Predict the structure.
Amino acid sequence: MPLQTVSKIWMDGELVDWADAKVHVLTHALHYGSGVFEGIRAYETDRGAGVFRLTDHMKRLHASARIVMFDMPYTVEQLVEATKETLRANDLKSCYIRPLAYLGYGEMGLNPLPLPVNVTIAMWPWGTYLGDEGVKHGITAKISSWVRPDHNSMPPQAKSTGIYLNSSLAKVEALKAGYEEAILLNPQGFVSEGTGENIFVVNEDVLTTPPTSAGALQGITRDTVMTIARNLGYEVREANLSRADLYSADEVFVTGTAAEVTPIRSIDDRPIGEPGNITKEIQETYANIVRGKLEKYDDWVEYVS
Ligand code: PMP
């Protein structure tokens, strides 16, 4: 689906018109994948637009920047304020928000040290990432032949633009083979995550998700779901999973800001089935929390006005 445009994009401290938010073709990040970014969602609430865990996302952007040695020109607080300012300028009630810090224009070559770090915050209305059907009935997934990069080749803990070529290869492979999403294993052969989501399995009343040491991103939805599940009385473990653990699980779902909580209904043609009760309970609780409907979790919703 083509992007639904809005009025303004924040670029290095200024609100510019959507159509003018451009960069030079010799921007370093275009050539070398030298960017770090975030994906955030704002939801419509009774108190206007509420951005889910905005500060936590900006903290993760800063953490990614530290890993790749970018000198961030804006503090977490300034980025939070800039996001709210852009939301107000676009008069959006709900949307997807994409902050990006990238090495800009000035020199070419692999030495990034002399280059400026530019920062933009764009946003646009975005529906379900893995489709309405997927949210309701679950998606089909395939274990990818592409492997998640090792910690010592490309740190999966940094949400860097370059590493998404790995995700993209896996996504295309899965789509071409007739599946909706890919699950990547790490070089040791354990499950890491989806192309843009973390993964959970449910057995009896226990949820298990791979640790970040397995190459999984420290997902904010993952953390949210772990908290929700524990508060609902379920045990949550971080442990290595094999592909067979996915095939034999009672329930499997993926989590992400874009994907929210999406059930998986089959993996490598082994049926998991329609979304299970625990998946549905967590999905529903998550949907209520992000819309500011559960007071207990209200600290996570950052209101714009
Ligand atoms: N893993 C990867 C590779 C991702 O791109 C994302 C989306 N940012 C996630 C996991 C989920 O992270 P979050 O819940 O913070 O959106």
